[in-house]
Amino acid sequence: MGFIRFLIIAIFVIYILRVLARIFLPFLFKKVVNNMQEKMNKQQAGYQQYQQKNSKPEGTLSVDYVPPTNPVKKPRLDNAGDFVDYEEVKEK
Question: Which intervals of the chain are annotated as region Disordered (predicted)?
Fold first, then answer.
């Protein structure tokens, strides 16, 4: 008797959950989709403002990085060893 009662209650609860899901899930999905659309619209608006702010007339040039002008130390070749001039010998 207890098992049959459990089955009836479980079936009833599952049926009620299915009915409630059919009623409330569309509203939940609409809300989630609307929130995502609002986020995307805000992101797109921010990007467009960034583009308008940083837009420059065509043909202008801007340099963001200028390398340092410190002279680069070149290795001294005097201490590198003995160098021998190469001459090509042609045999006839």
Answer: 44-78
pLDDT in tens, 19-69: 999 999 999 999 999 999 999 999 988 888 877 777 777 777 778 888 778
Distance CA 39, CA 43 (A): 6
- Paired tokens of 85: 């001039």
Amino acid at 37: Q
42: which 2 tokens? 């805000």
Return d(Cα 69, Cα 53) in angstroms, integer: 31
Contact 52, 46 (CB under 8 A): no
